[in-house]
Structure prediction request, 339 residues.
Amino acid sequence: MARLIDIAKTAGVSEATVSRVLNGREGVNESTRRSVMEVARRMGRDVGPGPSAGGSLVGVLVPDLDNQVFTAWAERIEAELFERGASTLVALRARTVEREQEILQRFLHCGVEAIIVVSGHHAQERGPVDHYREVTAAGIPLVLINGVQEGLDAAFLSTDDDHAVRVVLSHLQELGHQRVGLAVGDEHTWPVREKLRAFEAVTADWAEEPQPVAFTDFSYAGGYEAARDLVERGVTAIVCGSDVMAAGALEGVRSQGLSVARDISVVGYDDVFWASLTNPPLTTVRQAVGSLARAAVRTALSGGEGSRRPARTQVVVRPQLIVRGSTAAAPDGAASMER
Prediction:
């Protein structure tokens, strides 16, 4: 399938003009429109009528629907788009950069007027961004959630991970915990780096040695193994990077013959729908998915009009700590925390 840049070079116009023609937008004279359509057809692009006049079409890319937080993201974004008369085109599982690039190109091919990416490869510390530049160069508003890339003209929305970690650690500190472990995924991703930075900053003076960290993956098995590792390293509380990990951590603690939260407190992250149904109910950080989804849609539908490169913006939304039964006072015998 021919890319926008290939069509633009052949037709002698800008990528933004090609995008406007293929998306059925105004602002292109009829002669240029016909020329671009003819070139696109010769190069194998399907140049159908594009989105209906009844509303916009927005591409939404999420990692998967196995983790319920991504299901929540997809549902809330779709609901916000529906309220504004727009339609949603959802794609999943962009496990490689090449796959993500292909999905974004297919979105453009289908005539989307904006693209929203949740926890994509933009979250990688040194992830390539050329495929994102192809989108913005085409004049298509791009909204990237949970990750920031310098030098990329896009809108960036994320949960305030620094605030989240600080309120969790304050809660555990009030309960008397002085040996707290952090269980997170890939240390090269934006959300993990933000959590780790806050965790190390807050706990720097808690003890002579740094508080332990277990790097694994954001899965049940990852949480299970991280919990066993951290328990062996003497923690009395475990902070997990996701509720799915925390569910595994609950079982990992029990596999050591210990009780949650009498012996080991466990904290999750996300507040998925079943977090209150675990045994014991999970203390967790509630992401403001609804607020972020609303901001993402508002930005996607309002950004980039009449401009080749949408303005760069960054929005950070504070989450909320939800205290339930998986956290309790540090067990008797735990040393008092140095103040």
User: Anything to note?
Assistant: DSSP finds eleven helices and twelve strands in the chain. The chain has two domains: 4-158+290-316, 161-287. Residues 65 and 71 are 5 Å apart (CA to CA).
